[in-house]
Amino acid sequence: MNTHEADQHAAHEAIRITQPRPSPLRMRGTEKQPRAFLPALKRHPVVTYFALVYALSWACWIPLAIAKPSASSVPFLAVAIVGNGMPSLLGIALTALVSGKTGLAELFGRLGRVRQPLTWYAAALLLVPALQLAAAGIPALLGVATITIAFSSFTVLQSAASGLDEELGWRGFALPRMQARRPAFTASLLLGALWGLWHLPLMIARGLPLTTAGLIQLVFFILLVTAWAVLFTWVYNNTNGSLFLMVLMHTVLDIAALTIQASNWIGSALWLALIWATVTLVVTKEGAARLSRSGHVAPAGTVRVP
User: Domain for residue 304, yes or no?
Assistant: First the structure.
């Protein structure tokens, strides 16, 4: 080796030695994080799911609740849609982590369960809108309120997107695992309360007042959504876990809620009373344990409860 080559070699060695090396402890710490997450996810999939859904959706919606841009503006709609999509996105992602390709195939297989008895299509598509129409129409017929029906193609598109954005999570991931540990009615009540409260920052962004009146509106909404959740479980468990019907039911429910409006509190109170009367009838007839005549909860093939 000549003098020039020796100098170059020495320079390269000096650079290599002085370059910062990642700490072994730091590397082990970063490796442990995903390794620790997966066992925790598999031990507590439902808790992990709801924690992530709330964290990621609210991270989108809380800035909207603070800034309160116009609800019809493009930035508001874009951010709101991202937050609204978290239930299904996380349902898909966590299914992949917990159950792998088999779990994903089973999840999307439930989305493809289209062939169901017409009676359950009727229940999914007509029951909730009929109750709401009755609740708004009866006071109008009695002359104590008026009814407004405002239908648009945007409402249909928004509602269909909402169904797809949410149902692969609420009923696709969470409900089967919740029913595996508790009665179907209890699981539905818990899921419904969490589903309703999840909307809070978006409701504030859309004008929910931070007052006693706003709190009453929130409690009313959570009670309403909780009743919906029981009816969703009833249809789900009687259609072999059809997520296709869940998306349709969610879509029609949103269309009805955005289209049919009573002019005062009487229609809203009657709607809440009618839907909880329907829930009571369903639970009494089908049983709180299963909410199903078949005597078994609709399967989610890869759900395993340790």
Answer: no
